[in-house]
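To whoever is covering the structure queue this week,

Two jobs came back overnight. Logging them here so there's a record in the thread.

Job A:
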Amino acid sequence: MKCLVAVLVCVVLAEGLVKIPLHKHKSMREALREKGIELPYQDPALKYQPNEFAGSSSMYINNYADTTYFGAITIGTPPQSFQVLFDTGSANLWVDSIYCNTQACNTHKKFNPKQSSTFSGTHQSFYLPYGAGSLYGVFGYDTVNVGGIVINNQEVGLSTNEPGQNFVVAKFDGILGLSYPSISAGGETPVMDNMMSQNLLDANMFAFYLSRGGQQGSVLSFGGVDSSLYQGQIYWTPVTSQTYWQIGVQGFQINGQETGWCSQGCQSIVDTGTSMLTAPGQLLGYIMQAIGAQQNQYGMYMVDCSQVNYLPTLTFVISGVSFPLPPSAYIIQNGYNACSVGITPTYLPSRDGEPLWIFGDVFLREYYSVYDRTNNRVGFAAAA
């Protein structure tokens, strides 16, 4: 059900391997930073008491053109650094590896297990399909550092084949899934579950702040929330299916008028790995009509940029609380006087047959989102 279509369609620049000249006056961290690669900070004292100071961590993650949010993790000993898409809509951790020689792998950094003293291999293979793109790989175990939190014996997928073009232009070297273990390919234990079982967190939760307008400053926090990144209170709603981060939606309004489309219940998957807001396919035409959008020759829905401020506000009612999306949230400026609607259709219902929405980055830029594994609930607060 994973949807990475919008992420990968919008990324147009392929990047090759970066060779970094290391001068004696520059640290490796500085040299990498100049290339846009940020190593996660690790407290040097952690090697003496690796679990003593863990508990919570906030890490800056990259925003590429409001379509992809990714950041640095390290795998292995000594650490090898990779950019991974942090994805609440899937459960597996995988990275490009030296076992893969397709074009998608050859344009990215590859993990070399032979250079890690803590790596142990398995003979278990896997296949992972996404909405766009798929890969084959094998599982291994190694030490993983996410934002200074060190996880021992984390199962890692090493790609062996990435067919097609979808991952060729991706800005990331792999994906770190943050959903429930029940949807993990091969039964791999997700990173979050190992953080929990190894008692690495003060609270078994994580939270996202997604920056907008292509600006940097996005933050992923583990073990707690960052109160400087949201306003007012966090409103909680229960997870309805411990697969994806799936929640119930009781109402959908256009300019304050209830449509009745979710009066019998809708479901939504909260998904940082999908860049758009995704609506049930049978409702898309009505929504576009209300917005006054016209389809162009590429199938994209466009509006007149000068009219954006006059477009309707779309509001979701979740556990009795209204979450409005103003037009500035769902209209995407594509260049000079070209404005598209950041809403795409899905034709799949939820597992219980209710209409399915996907709250992708278009929604999540407006609302700081908190994912609580202890209480199996999702929290939203107005983003700062």
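Job B:
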Amino acid sequence: MSALAPVLDHAVINVADRLDEAATLFRRLGFQLTARGNHSLGSSNHLAVLGENYLELLGYEPGAADLRKAIWTSPPGLNGLVWKTQNADEVWQHLRERGLESDQPEQFYRPVTLPDGQEKQARFCTVRLKNGAVANGRSFFCQHLTPDAVWQHAWQRHPNGAANITDFVIAASDPFFAAEVYSQLFGAEWIKRTEGGAELAAGVARIRFLKPEAVLAEYGSLPGDFDGSPRMAALGIRTTSAERLRVSLMAGDIPFTPVNGACQVKAEHAFNLALRFWC
């Protein structure tokens, strides 16, 4: 049995050189975004900070395309499944035992201005699963060395009422094949069979491995370049107010479809990933 327990830390959306466009779009979707952050590794981001987890729009500014170029080769849209850890060194040893290790833990930072005006460094230590372990994206663990530089109450208030990511969806013609690496990582007991695929609990979220038809039925769309291979494809997000969500999407001129008490936003309107908001 694995010593690790899966908890979703954040979801990474690859926006490459389209940071401005992506930030504008996600604000229209009703998210409050943090100011542009610039990592010591060369990438840049905006966050939509939620309760237990968050969304990260990850890209690069002009002149920085070569600094983390391996990331930008992934398809645009959802491409990073990130787990919480309190000890990146222990995770790396765990990965070594299972033949899943990549490079040793890596520390980096980005300057941040807190809501009260205080200047601080948000510091992190991450450890990745080996290259090729996850199709069409990455999965890694993130140790927040300065969690208060991310989870600020003032940043957790969103016009659309977003509270947490509750579903991280991986579409695959063979869901159990897509889930196998996480069975190896956390233990087979974490993977539960469900209608249309499989899932594992990850804190307030669940990671779902679904056949394409199941994703279409529940989320309304797939990434435009989906080819049947395992692909991070959709997010479910709990909101505290259906009315705030509706007003926010309408104000942002975002097309949406009410389905069974939830609202679907198709991938073509959310940077190549489908969104399903629910109360």
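Note for Job B: The helical segments are 19-28, 69-72, 88-97, 175-186, 212-219, 242-251.

Please reply-all if you pick these up so we don't duplicate work.
Q.
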